[in-house]
Amino acid sequence: xxxxxxxxxxxxxxxxSSGEDSELPSTKGDIKALLRNHRMMFTADVATLxxxxxxxxxxxxxxxxxxxxxxxxxxxxxxxxxxxxRNQSHLTSRLDTLEDRHRSKNLKIRGIPxxxxxxxxxxxxxxxxxxxxxxxxxxxxVIDGVYRxxxxxxxxxxxxxxxxLQLQTRAAQxxxxxxxxxxxxxxxxxxxxxxYRDLSRPTxxxxxxxxxxxxxxxxxxxxxRWAFPRSLVISHGGATTRLTDAAEMDSVLIALxxxxxxxxxxxxxxxxxPHVWDMTKILPFQPIGTSTAFRAQxxxxxxxxx
Length: 306
Description:
InterPro entries: Transposase_22. This protein has 306 residues and is α+β, with helices and mostly antiparallel strands. It has three domains: 27-95; 104-197, RRM (RNA recognition motif) domain (Alpha-Beta Plaits), CATH 3.30.70; 201-298, Rec A Protein, domain 2. The chain is 46% helix and 13% strand. It has helices at residues 28-103, 121-132, 135-140, 170-180, 201-208, 211-219, 249-255, 267-270, 292-298, and strands at residues 106-110, 143-148, 163-167, 186-188, 191-197, 224-227, 231-236, 239-243. The chain has a five-stranded antiparallel sheet with strand order 2-3-1-5-4. It is elongated.
């Protein structure tokens, strides 16, 4: 029996009119039907959401895999880039060495008047060689070529252009350098000449990084020389030290008992030298095992521009 029959005065089942349907409370069946509809709707939505989550999860896994691949490729590219930089640095160094070796037979002469025309430079050079060398040495100093080079960009407009003298052999160049070692300013035919090594610009810039060290060595009368291709050889206390990196200057100064570089006293000393081409003063090449007499001879005679 339905629970509605138990109410007094009900007179059995009550059949409300159509206007009263919306005002009556929902029955248990209605609630169950409503819950069933909501459950079906939520089940479909959850199923759809699960599919979407699985799709996103698959994409995330794919992206993680791609990220790992990209990371591995990035590491590989970084290693290749490091190797290429190392090879590029090595090749650049070898190229500079080859250029310096090609220039090893050359001399740079400064002070030759512009009135000496290119056609007269060979004869002028032969007379210069004859004035500096013995007849036998002058005969061996065969000239391969002689020409002027453009003046430095920062040089004044009235600066005389340097002349490159190409000798046929390295031995002749060494003989000439030895002859002019003590003649920084050589008077010749109403002109004052100075002689320099013909070095590549990278080598000149590399040597300029050692300026604080060479200045200190010169001030303390410690002999040094430049060796081929790029090294600074210091002779002190019966020992020989060879430097190839400017970062080693501090340790060398400490080893020599010189704590620091001399502090610059002027603004010009703190700036880059205006004419790097002035820093290639001739220093004759000598074997590392130089004698004590040679070291004593070289003390205090290093050009300040080296």
